[in-house]
Design brief:
Blueprint (H helix, E strand, L loop, with lengths): L1 E2 L7 H9 L5 E2 L7 H10 L4 E5 L5 H10 L4 E5 L4 H9 L5 E3 L4 H10 L3 E3 L4 H6 L1 H4 L5 E5 H4 L5 H14 L3 E5 L4 H4 L4 H13 L4 E3 L19 H11 L5 E8 L5 E10 L3 E4 L3 E5 L6 H14 L4 H15 L11 H8 L9
Parallel strand pairs: 2-3, 3-4, 5-6, 7-8, 8-9, 9-10
Antiparallel strand pairs: 1-7, 10-11, 11-12, 11-13
Helix pairs in contact: 2-3, 4-5, 13-14, 14-15
């Protein structure tokens, strides 16, 4: 699960992190190698990196990398407020903590740096309520996280409810994975969990997963999608936006790609149609679609424009290896405007 933790003076760094194509996480064995490593990362196009505070020389390595410029350096595995203070004094511009410690969070807020705390239980999320009151704008989670164990659904429920209490926009993606529910109630249990969690959501992506008898029960044709989204909307009267990708796969290497969405204000809308899209790796395209859609909605664009961002970002992600997007906003906007679906390198 992820939350946008930008607030006040930290906004600039939060923007850098949000726009990063890759965030290297480094355990630097010797401070002597830190400077050349920073230069190499910057030369390779990296904009930021995280140095874990796991080695005796990590703080000095952080200082050396920060001094070289060209790279926004943060501190990882920060366990105490004192560590956070020392890391920021050494040049850290963001902090990552494996657990939720209120002192660490409050220290980072006071110092004006973004902090990303880890949470794993409902109790921790209740304590993390203060995070949502500190300027978060959007919270996203989904069915994969909820299906990881018998307790993660409670964690997701608490997090989504806390976000809503503080006026944070909440989104949910059912993202059904049958293997997560084998021996634990199967698709019927997955549907129960999806409906329980999606009631907290303002936006649901992958919304076709909420139509039909249970996830995966029906494969909807293009002409059936409007009715399927209407069915999902009927099950979730509090949701503002429902969206889904649309894919036909004549072959593994060539897909016809588009998207559709529904809101009470617009009714059914469709995204750009991209027939014959050459696919290198389709893994991550759904998450990229969600990220593009969320970007468009956060930026205040109307639903059809936000849907175009999602469609284009998903398409570009399929043209590069791996499940992490390498596309820039300029490339997404160029594709929305009609350019070819290809990440320029």
């Amino acid at each position: 699960m992820t939350a946008d933790l930008s607030a006040g003076p930290a906004d600039g760094m939060a923007t850098v992190l949000a726009g990063a194509r890759l965030l290297p996480v480094l355990t630097v064995p010797s401070p002597a190698s830190a400077g050349p490593l920073a230069d190499a990362l910057a030369a390779g196009g990296a904009t930021c990196a995280e140095v874990t505070l796991r080695t005796p020389g990590a703080e000095q390595a952080l200082r050396e990398m920060a001094a070289h410029g060209g790279l926004a350096v943060g501190a990882g595995t920060v366990l105490t407020a004192e560590q956070a203070e020392r890391a920021v004094a050494a040049g850290a511009r963001f902090v990552v903590s494996p657990g939720f410690d209120e002192e660490v969070v409050n220290t980072c807020r006071d110092l004006g740096v973004p902090v990303v705390p880890g949470v794993a239980t409902a109790t921790e999320l209740m304590r993390a309520d203060t995070v949502f009151s500190a300027g978060a704008r959007w919270f996203h989670t989904g069915g994969i996280f909820a299906g990881l164990s018998d307790t993660t659904v409670d964690v997701a429920d608490e997090a989504m409810a806390a976000a809503r209490r503080h006026g944070v926009t909440v989104s949910y993606d059912p993202n059904h994975r049958p293997s997560l529910w084998t021996g634990r109630g199967g698709p019927q249990r997955a549907r129960e969990v999806d409906l329980r969690l999606a009631r907290h959501a303002d936006v649901v992506v992958g919304a076709l997963g909420l139509a039909g008898e249970h996830p995966g029960a029906v494969r909807f044709g293009a002409d059936e999608v409007p009715d399927a989204l209407a069915e999902a909307a009927g099950r979730l009267p509090g949701v503002n936006v429902l969206a889904t990708t649309l894919r036909e796969a004549p072959s593994a290497g060539v897909n016809d790609w588009s998207a559709a969405a529904w809101s009470a204000g617009t009714g059914f809308v469709t995204g750009p149609r991209m027939p014959g899209l050459h696919v290198l790796d389709r893994i991550g395209s759904g998450d990229a679609f969600a990220a593009g859609l969320i970007h468009g909605l956060l930026a205040g664009h109307p639903l059809d424009r936000a849907l175009a961002y999602g469609t284009a970002h998903g398409a570009l992600t399929m043209t590069t290896p791996g499940d992490v997007s390498m596309a820039t906003l300029a490339e997404v906007e160029a594709l929305v405007a009609g350019a070819d679906a290809h990440v320029r390198r």
